[in-house]
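Incident log, structure service

09:12 report received: a user says their structure output differs between two submissions of the same chain.
09:20 pulled the input from the user's history:
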Amino acid sequence: MAPPPAELVEEIVEEVLLRFPPDDPASLVRAALVCRLWRRLVSAAAFRRRFREFHRTAPLLGALCQGKCGDGDARPTSLFVPTSSFRPAHAARYGWRAVDARRGRVLLERWPWGARPPLRTELAVWDPVTGEQRELPSLPMQFNVYPRTWAAAVLCAGGGNCDHLDCRWGSFLVVFMDIKHNSNKICSCVYSSELAAWGEQTFSDRLRCRRRDCFKPEPGVLMGNSLYFLFNSNHGIVRYDLTTREASMIDIRPAFNPQDIVLMTMDDGRLGFATIDKGRLKLNLWSRVVGRDDKEARFVQFRVIDLLKVFNAPKRWPRLSGFAHGAGVLFIWTLLDGLYSMDIKSEEVRKVPVTRYCHSVDVVPYSSFHTPGTTAPP
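09:34 re-ran on a clean worker, output below:
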């Protein structure tokens, strides 16, 4: 019997490779080492596009934990801790703090070493897969950089016109929000990679801030055309409309300590949050239900997870550390055992291998596709 044509062999092999698990990039690397044909198929741009279209949702590859440089250097460092087989070439970003991550990009803040108080915030956008890092121009001097008075997020510039399957090399935006306590308003500014500059400042008139208001240092949530950030002082969620650049407040009722809350996105597209009842070691999940009028919106508890049953052993002082949107994975920090990841659907818990340099309970999850041959464009 005659062997099948070479074109048919390639199609069969490619269909098999497309079904490799996206959260195990090493399996594709091993497949590329089998022969020249497989290496050519896996490293092709057309395969990367089909691979993303087949799986749709970017897998969780790891998380950025906050630590220190070590050896007497007290500067903060963002350390990439893998939750998959992906290993970036440079896992540590010395002197930088991870602020946000989305669509394969990580927003970093430079530690203003030696400045008391620091003069301004310096930001950069980093791609752990390619290793490319792009430093942004300095923010206008009108923005202060005092801890927790500001929040920022990195976004794809395509917005709703992009399918977000392969936009990591396209243009991006960085949204920066700052609380102006002298005017009790929130001032925002947007950076465009196409223009390589910050835009004009916009003051929000719909939200009046108080003197002690501040943001919780965790990544924002992008839903539709709005960003959501957790306020750390008045039990509320700040909603920022990307079109009007207006900020408004969403009340959290009943009130919880913001330190015990992590914002979540539900499968049905609704906003939610998770909180831990430390007394009974229960994980409570809440979802926002909106009525006919947005004023009727409220948060309703829809699920309770017994942490004693999930961990199969008591854990001391569990605390929520972050949530991987799209992947549905919640990060929980424990006092003696370190960091765990938990799949919300299956309630499967895995230990995250962290190093001795990690000292903060807050993490920035990183989700992205990675296939062999992924390099930055010229």
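09:41 both user submissions now match this output. Likely a transient worker issue. Closing.
09:42 reviewer note: The chain has a mean pLDDT of 81. The radius of gyration is 22 Å.
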